[in-house]
Design brief:
The protein is of the alpha/beta class. It has 19 helices and 8 strands. The protein folds into 3 domains: about 80 residues, Orthogonal Bundle (Fumarate Reductase Iron-sulfur Protein, Chain B, domain 2), CATH 1.10.1060; about 150 residues, Rossmann fold (3-Layer(aba) Sandwich), CATH 3.40.50; about 110 residues, Rossmann fold, CATH 3.40.50.1860. Strand 3, helix 13 and strand 4 form a beta-alpha-beta unit.
């Protein structure tokens, strides 16, 4: 892999395009996609002393999007992360996944705490035969701050009479390991999740986490055959709306939509969330940088786990822009975006797309 990456990075023409879109640099913080990516990979002596520098990155994919010669800078950063001693918080996360199959190191039964907030009981939905498999992801399932993402989605699935199932033994999607530079640890997780859904007769897997989506679409097929379609929930919900199976709530509020990096640049899903927002009758506002050119919220690439001040500073710039636009709330379709915006402060309401439907 190093030789292949070296050949790819050798194409770098040092034009500076990547630095012009780096969210850390644009927030007045230390960060340099070129020096901490392609240049570092070619300097074997420098790699030894990089320490935490490869982790000072949101892996937002913006640098790769604008690179005129297609240098895979995020992939280089991931590789370098696997070559240096990771920050303690990342090492702990890796150990948690290895031990408990979730990023928090919690017992599997704690995954279901969020269900107490539901008006419906889910016993008949767990580990049953169904056409649709809902993959919840670690963040939303274990974090009280994000559990509303799951409860709102479950309410919509119930309202539309969707035949779905949940996994009692869902394992981490593995994406945190990938961006920590530890891809070699993902295979057991992928195999477990694929097999569990196969046993349920699932035809389509949906997830409300863009990082999980990338794992299912990009990482898993390289490990084991994925015998079903995989969609983000915004795609699935829009399909239900188009088919007349889901009637959404109506509002006249003004919302601004934040494109999650993993959903927009990672999966090229930008229209369905906007269509859902417009379907409610809401006024859709837009950030100056949007869709494939959207600025990162600051919470990606494990940055919040390694540099909370940097993650919050990037988020506050977006929150300030949302306020200037006159938005009632920021709407997003990513647990990491929601978490970073909320924890950064700014007194702006942050909602998942599903919550306004």
């Amino acid at each position: 892999m190093t030789l292949k990456l070296l050949l790819e990075t050798d194409k770098c023409i040092h034009c500076g395009s990547c630095t012009s879109v780096c969210p850390l640099l644009n927030a007045g913080l230390k960060g340099d996609p070129q020096k901490n990516g392609p240049d570092a990979l070619k300097d074997t002596e420098r790699v030894k002393y990089l320490t935490n520098l490869p982790f000072n990155c949101t892996l937002c994919l913006a640098c790769q999007e604008v690179c005129p010669v297609n240098v895979p800078i995020p992939r280089v950063v991931e590789h370098l992360r696997g070559k240096v001693k990771a920050p303690e918080s990342i090492e702990q996360m890796i150990e948690n996944i290895k031990r408990s199959e979730n990023i928090f190191g919690l017992k599997s039964e704690e995954r279901w705490m969020w269900t107490f907030e539901l008006d419906v009981t889910l016993e008949e939905r767990i580990d049953v035969k169904a056409d649709i498999g809902y993959f919840t992801g670690c963040n939303s399932a274990f974090s009280p701050l994000l559990s509303k993402i799951l409860t709102s989605h479950i309410s919509l699935l119930e309202r539309a009479n969707v035949n779905y199932t949940l996994l009692s033994e869902e394992a981490c999607c593995g994406f945190p390991l990938v961006i920590a530079g530890r891809r070699e640890l993902v295979a057991p997780l992928a195999e477990k999740n694929i097999e569990n859904f196969k046993k349920k007769g699932v035809k389509k897997v949906i997830t409300s986490c863009p990082a999980c989506l990338r794992s299912w679409r990009e990482i898993y097929p390289k490990i084991k055959e994925v015998p079903f379609e995989v969609q983000h929930t915004t795609q699935f919900l829009w399909q239900l709306v188009k088919e007349g199976k889901l009637k959404v709530a109506k509002t006249k509020e003004a919302f601004v939509y934040q494109d999650p990096c993993e959903l927009a640049r990672g999966c090229h899903i930008v229209e369905e969330p906007r269509k859902l927002i417009k379907e409610t009758g809401a006024k859709l506002l837009e950030f100056q940088d949007k869709k494939l050119e959207a600025t990162c919220c600051g919470g990606g690439g494990l940055l919040r786990a390694t540099n909370v001040q940097a993650a919050s500073r990037i988020a506050l710039l977006k929150l300030q822009e949302a306020k200037r636009l006159g938005a009632k709330a920021i709407i997003t379709a990513c647990p990491a975006c929601m978490q970073n915006f909320v924890k950064a402060g700014g007194r702006m309401q942050v909602l998942d797309v599903s919550e306004i439907l």
